[in-house]
UniProtKB/TrEMBL annotation:
Name this polypeptide is given: Aspartate racemase
Keyword set, alphabetical order: Isomerase
GO molecular function, one term: amino-acid racemase activity
InterPro entries with a match to the protein in the record: Asp/Glu/hydantoin_racemase, Asp/Glu_race, Asp_race
Family: Belongs to the aspartate/glutamate racemases family.
Pfam families per UniProt: Asp_Glu_race
PANTHER family hit by this protein: ASPARTATE-GLUTAMATE RACEMASE FAMILY, GLUTAMATE RACEMASE
Source organism phylogeny: Bacteria, Bacillati, Actinomycetota, Actinomycetes, Pseudonocardiales
């Protein structure tokens, strides 16, 4: 089993889900009392949130890269970033470490392919929906994306940062999220990715009229599978494929 390093704390609510799901997957695969060989560096989200508000992605990237390097220094053999939005700094992380970095959009693309979906809707924070770093990563896998209209994108930001990242799940906000999912279905989406890890705390597959991709759960399970992959996988593309092979954004 390879040691997994998780950059977390953004928010800690979803990071706790990563810890739970990775361990569940390892126990599912190995049985008995097995659990993951796992390190978590939980950052202070207030500092990261200020970088997001200020648009200071250079500083945010340095924080992410320092965290990743610290995890590798502590023995991590692959690194996972437990947030969708901060994958805007994926390039800084990949440049800072000599071990595989598992990009969340790569895991999402694999799940979309499993579902047979080539056009997926995205729900998430505005930079995830409006910047190109996430959609371009999915496009490498042949996945097209659909996003909500501008008023809905603004409302998603309010729900995510005003409620979900501080632990609140309001019934009326859940209803708005379901309406947004229906809107994406009307726009031709074959599945919807909850491209903010906290959205999984508010909406479940049982709530949705169409297939959902729970990005945190998908990412965490894939990380566990990579950690358990045979050592030879490092030379046949299984792990090397998680490294950057072109522009990160």
């Amino acid at each position: 089993m390879r040691r997994i390093g998780v950059i977390g704390g953004m928010s800690w609510y979803s990071t706790a889900e990563y810890y739970r799901v990775i361990n569940e997957r390892v126990q599912e695969r190995l049985g008995g009392h097995h659990s993951a060989d796992l390190l978590v560096h939980s950052l202070d989200f207030d500092e990261i949130r200020q970088c997001q508000i200020d648009g200071d992605w250079e500083r945010a990237g340095k924080i992410m890269a320092t965290s990743a390097a610290g995890l590798v220094g502590a023995g991590a053999q692959l690194v996972v970033l437990a947030t969708n939005l901060m994958h805007k700094s994926a390039g800084a992380i990949e440049d800072a470490i000599p071990v595989p970095f598992l990009h969340i959009a790569d895991a999402v693309a694999q799940e979309a392919a499993r579902l047979g979906a080539r056009r997926i809707g995205l729900l998430g924070a505005r930079p995830v929906l409006e910047d190109d770093f996430y959609a371009e990563r999915l496009a490498r896998h042949g996945i097209e994306t659909v996003v909500p209209d501008a008023p809905t994108r603004a409302r998603l930001d309010e729900i995510i940062f005003g409620e979900l990242t501080v632990g609140n799940v309001r019934p009326e906000s859940r209803a708005e999220l379901l309406a947004a999912i229906e809107g994406l279905a009307g726009g031709g989406a074959e599945a919807v990715a909850l491209a903010c890890t906290e959205l999984e705390l508010a909406v479940t597959a049982e709530d949705s009229p169409m297939p959902l991709i729970a990005t945190a759960r998908t990412h965490a399970r894939h990380a566990a599978d990579l950690a358990l992959a045979p050592t030879s996988g490092a030379t046949n593309g299984t792990l090397v494929g998680t490294r950057r092979t072109g522009p990160a954004r």
